[in-house]
Design a protein that fits this description.
Layout (H helix, E strand, L loop, with lengths): L1 E2 L3 E3 L8 H6 L10 E5 L7 E3 L4 E3 H7 L1 H5 L1 H7 L5 E8 L5 E3 L3 H13 L19 E5 L3 E7 L2 H11 L5 H7 L4 H13 L3 H20 L5 H13 L5 H5 L2 E6 L4 E4 L5 E13 L5 E4 L7 H7 L13 E2 L6 E4 L7 E6 L7 E3 L5 E13 L5 E4 L4 E4 L6 E16 L10
Antiparallel strand pairs: 1-20, 2-3, 3-6, 4-5, 6-12, 7-13, 8-11, 8-12, 9-10, 9-12, 14-15, 15-16, 16-21, 17-21, 18-19, 18-20, 18-21
Helix pairs in contact: 7-8, 9-10
């Protein structure tokens, strides 16, 4: 077991206080957006095994079978397949999508062949991995996720009654769902610059009107109006009209497949994702937007968002897992339950434990003990003897990130 030394990423949309409060440190006065735990080269965690801090990337690359286990190393190569973060959004993130595995490999190779520097502002692919992800709310959370059912969006557009959106609405009436969403999104993103400000202002005014009139779309309209105030003239504001507006309560989660457009508006979440930093933006940002590549990888599928809850595992009902359809990661949570026996974690695969409430203690088979305060995390390499975890406090909570090939926690 290794205690993780983690990096914080600053972004203008980050909270001044949420991550410092989690870590029990004083705010710096600057927005702190993401606490990264894992082995991505962009912000790798470090561990100290008696010779000073070393990057988890380096340790895994030096002994992938030993660190990841033969099964995980064979499937994913010499890299930790997942990345876990605490994400704290005070302001909305850019409207964005992530590539699937084929798109990422192709896009990365193409930019490498063209000699685009890895840190170039106009670079689309920072690595060759896909990026499905899941967020689990640590409190009230608001976001835009996936395309809303087209019939519902047309009702919203009728209620807004914005003449400038007439071509947008006509595109959505194509009976082919994919073609309709593609055409509507393309129409907005390709608007001439001279028209964008007028369209966004008209959308914002109509959204403010509906939000004030108690419309069934009041919350979604209030969110879009807020985006227009922050990003005047940004075509992403009109794209946001197409998306599901969601609210999550503590413990609720959403899985985001590759290609699904989304923006996180406000709140603090635990985010687990494939080990990638590939982001293609389509609005609500001053950063690079490659419209052609964006339209190539976006998934033009509409439907309601499935809100996930934690489900008890068969082996240990006290460990609650969030079901996801990908092989890269598995997220579960361990709760304090009074006098119950410790969780005994099978370590067939690598894992990271993150304490978000209360305290926890991890004990190895050799008697090694690591205490976890709120905000602290540990890495457990594959193949270690079983690790016993006790979660303390009236409302103690630890998140466990691993890969599906690792069997669930047990109390045998």
């Amino acid at each position: 077991m290794d205690r993780l030394l983690n990096r914080i990423r600053a972004n203008a949309w980050g909270s001044l206080t949420a991550i410092p409060e989690l870590l029990g440190v004083a705010p710096t006065g600057e927005p702190q957006a993401e606490l990264w735990m894992g082995a991505h080269p962009g912000a790798p965690s470090e561990v100290d095994r008696g010779r000073g801090p070393r990057s988890l990337v380096e340790l895994i690359a030096a002994d992938p079978d030993g660190e990841l286990g033969p099964d995980t190393a064979a499937r994913f190569g010499p890299r930790l397949p997942f990345l876990i973060k605490v994400l704290a959004a005070e302001e909305p993130l850019s409207l964005q999508v992530h590539p699937d595995a084929i798109q990422a490999r192709h896009g990365y190779a193409e930019e490498e062949a063209r000699g685009v520097p890895i840190d170039a502002a106009h670079r689309n692919y920072r690595d060759s991995s896909h990026k499905p992800e899941m967020i689990c709310a640590l409190g009230d959370f608001e976001g835009l996720v996936g395309y809303r059912e087209i019939a519902e969006t047309l009702k919203l557009l009728d209620a807004l009654d914005v003449p400038e959106l007439a071509p947008f609405a006509r595109a959505l009436r194509d009976p082919d769902e994919e073609a309709a969403l593609r055409a509507a999104t393309t129409h907005v993103l390709m608007l001439p610059a001279r028209l964008r400000t007028g369209v966004v202002e008209a959308v914002a005014a109509a959204c403010r009107r509906l939000a004030a009139n108690g419309s069934p779309y009041a919350e979604a309209c209030a969110a879009v109006a807020g985006l227009a105030e922050r990003h005047p003239g940004d075509p992403g504001v009109a794209v946001a009209l197409l998306l599901n507006h969601i609210r999550l309560r503590e413990g609720e989660a959403v899985f985001l497949a590759a290609g699904m457009p989304h923006s996180y508006l406000h709140g603090v979440v635990v985010e687990i994702l494939a080990n990638s930093d590939n982001v293609l933006r389509c609005g609500l940002t001053d950063k690079h937007i490659d419209v052609g590549e964006l339209l190539r990888i976006m998934a033009f599928r509409a439907g309601p968002v499935e809100i996930l809850g934690p489900e008890p595992t068969e082996v240990d009902p006290a460990e609650e897992v969030y079901a996801t359809p990908v092989a890269d990661f598995r997220l579960s949570r361990l709760r304090s339950t009074g006098t119950r026996e410790p969780y005994l974690l099978d370590t067939a695969g690598p894992q990271i434990l993150l304490c978000v409430r209360g305290t926890a203690t991890a004990t190895g088979a050799d008697g090694e003990v690591l205490d976890l305060a709120r905000g602290q995390s540990i890495y457990v390499r594959a193949g270690e003897p079983r690790v016993a975890v006790t979660v303390d406090g009236a409302d103690g909570l630890v998140f466990r990130a691993t890969v599906p090939c690792s069997r669930a926690a047990s109390t045998d």
